[in-house]
Amino acid sequence: MVPVQVSKGPVNVIKILQKAGGFAVFIRLIKSTQEDIQVFSQLNDSRDGVTIFAPTDGAFSAIIKSGVLNSLSDHQKIELVQFHIIPKILTTANFQTVSNPITTLAGSGSRFALDVITTENMVNVTSGLTNTSVSAIVYTDSQLAIYQVDKVLLPLDIFAPKSLAPAPSPPKPKKDDGADTPVVPKDISGAVSCVMLNTMLISGVIIVAAAFPL
């Protein structure tokens, strides 16, 4: 695909995609989520530029037929579009040196991980759930790069089930501080018997001595 050439002036992502053709679903999502305003602001207020991975209409067919796309909330649709937008420009040469994972407008971290891997003349893009490649350059200039991808990039945060929180451990039995701890009596019967026996022996000696004086 030959990159689209637009007239000088403010860059309009919607017009670029419309002129290229084949991106009707992505255009509709961008407009409904108002991410075109976000991109316009990024291009005019920042020198970092913007990179967009634009899925074709064919790329959306699977999640449209299954009803997945329509089941997403408004917030999830925003995140889905933002996951395809990088808040800096990446040229084809940058793909070879970029640090993974790439931060998108949707955020960063493991739930929004997006990696770009180059192999010879191919640029692969993976989200953990989607593995696709850049099939064409739609548009490029010093501030904006739009690349065609043939699969929708599905972020883990939306399409992978979140791990359940561990079940709380059962409560420990409470100790009743007010209850007296039973005291086990010591066995002192042997000591008592010994004392009594000694006393009798001593008494016996005294009695014998008294009966038979020296």
UniProtKB/TrEMBL annotation:
It is a lipid-anchor; GPI-anchor. The chain crosses the membrane at residues 190-212. It comes from Salix viminalis. SUPFAM superfamilies: FAS1 domain. This is FASCICLIN-LIKE ARABINOGALACTAN PROTEIN. The keyword Transport does not apply. Keywords: Cell membrane, Glycoprotein, GPI-anchor, Lipoprotein, Membrane, Signal, Transmembrane, Transmembrane helix. InterPro entries: FAS1_dom_sf, FAS1_domain, FLA_A. Belongs to the fasciclin-like AGP family. It is found in: Cell membrane. It comes from the Eukaryota. GO terms for biological process: plant-type secondary cell wall biogenesis. GO terms for cellular component: plasma membrane; side of membrane. Residues 10-153 form the FAS1 domain. May be a cell surface adhesion protein.
